[in-house]
Design brief:
By secondary structure, the chain is mainly α. Helices cover 80% and strands 1% of the residues. A two-stranded antiparallel sheet has the order 1-2. The radius of gyration is 20 Å and the shape is globular.
Length: 358
């Protein structure tokens, strides 16, 4: 904490206190569920602030590529734990919709908010950033959509391949992991020059990277547990309001589990760190679609329930449509408030459809 100013130290202590209270309200009986929900939400917001602050400082040392990948890895821990616990409990619907929701919330809602924040901050109203990562993310998402679409078609046409969905999912998972590894290596190596510039930029204040890295990892781990407490406190409300499982997984759980990325991406865009903001969002989308989802397909073989790529047609269409939208909107390296609003509008429509699903 020696590198933090007095205000940041007090905020850090407040977040630690909120996290402790959230844990108490989760595991001590007789506590109001509404109180547990509010405290967990405040703790998540505080942890998101820590990750945002640490991400920006780490970015001064490693550049947007490494930092965005690191932050998305830490930020995606909540989804990983939620899916593992859901599969172990035998709830494959929650597991699948939580993963799909994480992709769609980040690619539509969060990216839309980031584009609006970044473009409104720009003097000419146009947010500019490197176009390579958005295009690569769209490619990875389209490849994942291709595999999911194939399984969906075989499943609902009841052909011979539909009886081997688990095997096809395993092969598809291995293929996606290999493609992701090739892309990640190429992406990180190609950004080496940017990282050197970030380390030697004139006027850059050199500080130890150890402190921000520790805070980044610890806050990400804490958010994994806090997200579970948040969702657990929300479950009674879902039952009382008769919300569909699809809406809960695709919207509520996804937004809660991605709270860290939401705050980090928007804050970075408001500060003019456009490439880093886009990297945080797009790295998370690419990682869930092409790394975490296939990895969990393989991990689920050791759990009570097995995860596959077989999704309902409406979700296959949503995933493919999202890939095309982000390629069209961000592929030129520029964005306006109109384009950000278009992404948010698409998410609102998707949420409305999910609300009427069973």
């Amino acid at each position: 904490m020696s590198r933090l100013d007095p205000r940041e130290r007090w905020l850090l202590l407040a977040v630690l206190a909120l996290t402790a209270v959230a844990a108490i309200t989760r595991y001590v009986g007789g506590v109001s569920e509404i109180l547990a929900f509010v405290v967990a939400g405040l703790a998540l917001a505080g942890q998101a602030w820590i990750v945002s602050n640490a991400t920006e400082r780490v970015g001064m040392h490693f550049g947007s590529a490494v930092t965005g990948t690191l932050q998305s890895t830490v930020g995606n821990l909540p989804e990983f734990f939620v899916v593992v616990f859901a599969l172990q409990a035998g709830d494959t619907v929650v597991a699948q919709t939580a993963l799909l929701g994480s992709i769609l919330v980040n690619a539509l809602l969060l990216l839309g908010l980031v584009l609006i924040a970044g473009s409104l901050r720009a003097r000419d109203g146009i947010m500019r950033f490197s176009a390579r990562l958005p295009n690569d993310t769209a490619t990875l998402l389209l490849v994942a959509s291709f595999i999911i679409a194939l399984l969906g078609l075989t499943r609902f046409s009841s052909d011979a391949a539909s009886r081997h969905g688990q095997t096809i999912s395993i092969v598809g998972a291995v293929v996606l992991l290999c493609i992701y590894a090739v892309w990640l290596r190429q992406y990180l190596l190609s950004e080496g020059e940017e990282e050197k510039q970030a380390q030697t930029a004139p006027g850059t204040v050199r500080q130890s990277v150890a402190g921000p890295l520790v805070r980044l990892v610890l806050a990400g781990l804490a958010s994994a547990f806090t997200s579970d407490w948040f969702v657990h406190a929300l479950e009674p409300s879902i039952r009382q309001l008769h919300i569909s499982h699809a809406f809960a997984g695709l919207v509520i759980v996804a937004i809660a589990g991605n709270a860290v990325e939401h705050v980090v991406g928007v804050v970075l865009a408001l500060r003019g760190r456009n490439d880093l903001a886009i990297s945080v969002v797009k790295s998370s989308v690419a990682q869930v679609a092409a790394f975490m989802y296939p990895a969990l397909v393989l991990i689920s073989l050791l759990l009570r329930s097995h995860l596959t790529f077989a999704l309902a047609p409406v979700y296959v269409g949503a995933l493919a449509g999202t890939a095309i939208l982000i390629w069209q909107i961000t592929g030129d390296g520029e964005a306006t408030p109109f384009e950000g609003a278009a992404l948010i509008g698409a998410f609102v429509l998707l949420a409305t459809v999910a609300a009427f699903e069973t």
